[in-house]
Amino acid sequence: MNAMRDMHIPALQIEGLKKSFGKAEIINGIDLSIGKSERHAIIGPNGAGKSTLFNLITGRFPATSGKISLHGRDLAGMAPYQINRLGLSRSFQITNIFPKMTVFENLRCALLWSKGYRYSFWHLVSKASDLTEGAEAILEQINLTSRRDLPAGVLSYAEQRALEIGITIGGGADVIMLDEPTAGMSNTETDYIVELIRKVTEGKTLIVVEHDMGVVFGLADRISVLVYGTIIATGRPEEVRGNPKVQEAYLGAALEAEH
Amino acid sequence: MTDQQITTDPAKPAQRMRAGGTTVTLMPWILAGLVLLVLPFIFQSNSALTIMNKMSITIIFALAYNMLLGQGGMLSFGHAVYMGVGGFACVHIMNASEFFSMLPLPLLPIFGGLFGMGLAMIVGSFSTRKAGTVFAMISLGVGELIAACSLIFVAFFGGEEGVSGDRTYALPLFGIEFLRQIEVYYLVAFWLMLSAILMFLFSRTPIGRMANAVRDNPERAEFLGYSARWVRFYSFTASGFFAGIAGAMFAINYEILTEENLNLVTSGTILLVTFLGGVGFFFGPIIGAVVFTLVQTVLSLQTDLWAIYAGALFVATVMFFPGGLAGLIMMHGPAAKLGKLHYLVLPYLKTLIPAGIGILGVCALVEMTFHVRHASIGSNEMTLFWTTFDSHSLMPWAVAVAVSVVAFWIMRRNLPELVAAWHQANGVAKDKL
Amino acid sequence: MDLIFVNLIDGLVTGLLLFMLSAGLTLIFSMMGVLNFAHASFYMLGAYFAYQISLAMGFWMGLLLAPIIVGVLGAGVERYGLRRVHQYGHVPELIFTFGLALLIEEIVQFIWGKNNVAYNAPEILQFSAFAIAGNSIPAYKIFMIFISVSIFIGLLFILTRTRIGMIIQAALSYPRTVEALGHNVPLIFMGVFGVGTGLAGVAGVIAGPTLGTFPGMAFVLGSIVFVTIVIGGLGSLWGALVASLLIGWITTFAASYNIRFEDILLSVGFSMPENMAESPFRDIWNMTTPQIGPILPYLLMIIILVVRPHGLFGKRDA
Lengths: 259, 433, 318
Fold this sequence. Notes:
The complex is a heterotrimer of chains A (259), B (433) and C (318).
Chain A: E1 12-21, E2 24-34, E3 39-43, H1 50-57, E4 65-70, E5 73-74, H2 80-85, E6 88-90, H3 103-112, H4 129-141, H5 157-170, E7 175-179, H6 187-200, E8 205-210, H7 213-217, E9 222-227, E10 230-235, H8 237-242, H9 244-258
Parallel strand pairs in A: 3-8, 3-9, 6-7, 7-8
Antiparallel strand pairs in A: 1-2, 1-4, 4-5, 9-10
Chain B: H1 13-16, H2 27-42, H3 46-72, H4 80-95, H5 97-100, H6 108-127, H7 132-149, H8 154-157, E1 163-164, H9 181-202, H10 206-216, H11 218-222, H12 228-254, E2 256-257, H13 264-277, H14 284-302, H15 306-320, H16 324-330, H17 333-337, H18 342-374, E3 381-384, E4 387-390, H19 394-432
Antiparallel strand pairs in B: 1-2, 3-4
Helix pairs in contact in B: 2-9, 3-9, 3-12, 3-13, 3-14, 4-6, 4-12, 6-12, 9-12, 10-12, 13-14, 14-16, 18-19
Chain C: H1 2-32, H2 39-57, H3 59-86, H4 90-112, E1 128-132, E2 135-138, H5 139-161, H6 163-173, H7 175-180, H8 185-211, H9 217-232, H10 237-256, H11 261-268, H12 282-286, H13 289-292, H14 296-307
Antiparallel strand pairs in C: 1-2
Helix pairs in contact in C: 1-5, 1-8, 1-9, 1-10, 2-3, 2-4, 2-8, 2-9, 3-4, 3-8, 5-6, 9-10, 9-14
């Protein structure tokens, strides 16, 4: 349903975005434009406001001021589910799945809306072959076929993260937002998940938040560096890495965080 | 308190294995239908039919209630009003003789359902915005409000004496006028089967699956394109519909509805029934309704104190078996799959029989205490377990105490054996996984 | 005018009584996240225990001992019941207290029977304190006001001036943090539960003689107490006080001023239906304020929950 979109309109456009909690200004004026099929990473030290930015874009929090548009449509005042229906899907920093349902059912739930079932009470999910096939296909993609009928809550951490990515892409959204998909993982697990992300987001717009620059370096087309609620640099990975401002601010803040 | 906190615990295995399988086998339904058909031939007395009708009505209501509590994660303290209003509406239809004489009685429940659903849509429009405590409190408030209104709005609710009607004025269907109790039984049984099947299928539809999803994690569901509020609203509406059908069954069976059908006692009872049966499984409320109705009718004939036993049973269930009776049964699933249930038979006998005797001993003590305290002065004789004795003498007390103590001691001594057998029956299961 | 004054005092007595229950309930809720359905049952136990003690040792010993026994019992329920059910989640917790309320009512019936017991105010307080325009105000009512106000002041003092009060206050807003600071939260929970139910016990001891001591007394007050703390805002002591007084006065005034809806409807411009006995709206025309008085709190609660889910003074959602 998103095929007819104008190539000139960016997938996601953010203008003058601000957010304060009480007196504390967490996001103080962000402008960012992310093109269609671009893989964009937002990096920054802890507490830079990355997750807040995510929550603003996906409608979890209302913005204090500024404008966010998805494929040229203003998202102001929309609830998360409305934004999701426009083709934006997200994962969470803390694993956020349906722990009591089986892996298969988790994925099937993710497919329901986009396959047009909506609030239907006249279809049986077991009889809907498009749901079953779609869920099986994602299972295959995220390599969890062997875990199909286990309750999601008993999976290992890495498996749960993979499932979360599967749920996120399940709805067929063309803008995928992943919040620290590799948080808390070992190096091997991280490599595995990054490869998985690359595979499943082929041809889609990907926005990924990380605080580890290394993770996103091979994945992203462009990188934005967020420090204390402002984007201090945006560009291709090698440009950003070479940027002295980034090195100073990012390394400085990272050092501060470590001490 | 957030919505998430008010769901049942994911760590409980009994709840994890909830009715989620996709294979719908017809066998249990055919079996249930056959049982319903045959039951009146086994239990022919009128009182048995009365109990069975009561059971069927309670089953429909409990299943409707569990659409909220078990499947939608919404705890209602005022669900009686949807059943009640559906029932009151049906009695009024019975009294609208011109319309009623053109309506076959078996169609009446549809109207009960629609009225229950209508009320649920009105209340749900504001109560389902949140789950958790807000929902529970609004349900309590609405329940109390409507129950209190029943004494004010006499035209609809009939005040203290309620409203009554006559089901036999309906259009006869194939010559059946539903004069006899057995005809009513089959009508109720038919609607029981139909509603149970429909409610089961509902849990397998997209909205039914999302009701589970919203119960477990409303936020994630919102990021999948679903409005948690609307999902709750639709579950609530559907639950109201089936509660209304239960109300219609009540109206047909008893031909009278009163304030009692609306009040907190009825709402609380259905919570008790559903939880006793087990909210984690579709068939849980059915077991709950059957057991509760039996306990209520049989026990209340035997003792005045039945409510105290029912209360104690309920509290014990919440404390020790939060999965309810259905959860207890399903705990044996893994052992049954391995064909190792027979390991458990003897240990169960060795612990449960003494436990049963011990409980009866305690009950005897309770009954004797009650007799000593409340029987009129001079009447010291009481009859218990087919024995007549003087409740003021020492002997029966000593016997009851001794029996209880010895029985519980035997149970305790045999308990490790049961635990070992349990591990044996399930332990190998772990290896196979 | 004089009647207003009498009603103000009556409403104040009801309101303060409600407050003694709602204060404990709202404290328990804020700390443990549990709405204790059995709270009013402890109020009933207070009355019955006091009655039993007063038979042997008189009213004043009852006033002293009954709340303590109730509080210990409450702490026991927390320690051996709630704490166990807590692991299953909030719904089973709520259901547990609901079942407990049913069970306590049955047990009270079992021990003391179904009828009112003869629990009376002490003779020393059975005189008329003063009279307003022929309506005498019993001294016992003044005594009830005195007890409730001193408990309120005592509670305020403990909560704002003592160390344990500070911890409890902190736990009202940030329960997790308090636990992280190394306080023995389970013990605090048990204590708050004990004190809360003890307060309900006090209310029962002093309300029993005027409102009657019977097995249904918990049921009568139980849901109103809920309504009170929801209206006031869960977790807010001031909210509980304001809502208690509000409900006390609303119900008292509605009961004593007989305003007929007929008059209201006529004055707004509706015309009386010709055949009143046949009209489906006859009940609306016949309604009076004493009739709808008891349901006003519920109506108020629903309206508040719809427009302001965190209640009048609450900071958190219900």
